[in-house]
Amino acid sequence: MRSLFTIGLIAAWYSSNIGVLLLNKFLLSNYGFKYPIFLTLCHMLACSLLSYIAIEWLKIAPLQRVRSWLQMLKISALGIIFCLSVVGGNISLRYLPVSFNQAVGATTPFFTAVFAVVMTAKREGWLTYVTLIPVVAGVIIASGGEPLFHLFGFIMCIGATAARALKSVLQGILLSSEG
């Protein structure tokens, strides 16, 4: 029963991500909505509300209290970077097709590896770096052949992808040092 619940959560997570992505693209491109930052606000409010419901009502996870100002600063830094990644992603959707946006997003492991080396001096095995070459090369090739390529949209998409990777690395650094 527990594994069925987990599968349901994973399916809900994928479905909601795909739904939000396609809805944002529809609103920003097809419908002519010009406020990607407002969409980010709606995203953040929905995440907060659903998290509250999951913690307080459904008891999926225990409520965690912030224990210090330092912990609050760490959490706030992660929240700001996450918000910037969502803003960048939403802005890029206004200019780029969803398929190209997702292809660029596939470079997240590359940025994660770069940030990990720069910020923690942690190096992976050479095979890890070699496997990133076809991914980055594929995005470069796709960028050159994308008929609806838009430079500003591409820059925002790369920025959003880098911000997601930065959040991931910072999360490992910041949240592991204090209980």
Overview of this protein structure:
The chain is mainly alpha-helical. The chain has one domain. It contains seven helices and no strands. The longest helix has 29 residues. The protein is globular and about 50 Å long. It comes from Hibiscus trionum. InterPro entries: EmrE-like, Sugar_P_trans_dom, TPT_transporter.
Q: What is the H/E order?
A: HHHHHHH
Q: Note the beta-strand portion.
A: under 5%
Q: What is the molecular shape?
A: globular
Biggest sheet character: none
Mean pLDDT over all positions: 89
Radius of gyration: 18 Å
* DSSP helix fraction: over 70%
Uncertain runs: none
The structural domain count equals: 1
Count of helix runs: 7
Q: List how many beta strands DSSP finds.
A: 0
> What is the rounded distance between the termini?
31 Å
SS-derived structural category? mainly alpha
InterPro entries: EmrE-like, Sugar_P_trans_dom, TPT_transporter
Membrane topology: Multi-pass membrane protein
Keywords: Membrane, Transmembrane, Transmembrane helix
Main location: membrane
